[in-house]
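Sample intake sheet
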Amino acid sequence: MTRDEIRNAVIQALTNIAPEIDPQTLQADTVLRQEFDLDSMDFLNFVIGRHDTLGVDVPEHDYPHLATFNGAVDYLASRVPACSRRSALITRTLAEGYGRRPFFLPRRSRALS
């Protein structure tokens, strides 16, 4: 995922939470909670949305990294490639199977066959 795609995902999340946000006014050092009057639930929804969209887990101790617009983009950009590699490994493992069967499929009972 490119930095522009991550930037657009952050903008999309912010405009979903606070529709009055004008993406054209976002500056690199914009403090998101202060500038757009986001409360703690709005911010938590922003974090959860980034997990759902980008697959990036953000531990609570890293929340300060997401305080500014550029900080959020930088933080997420540094985490997305690792997630992409992990996803590629899981996909390859599933495609090749684990042994003879994919590891997530239970064996069928002979009674049901």
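Comment: Confidence is low (pLDDT under 50) at residues 85-95, 97-107. DSSP finds four helices and no strands in the chain.
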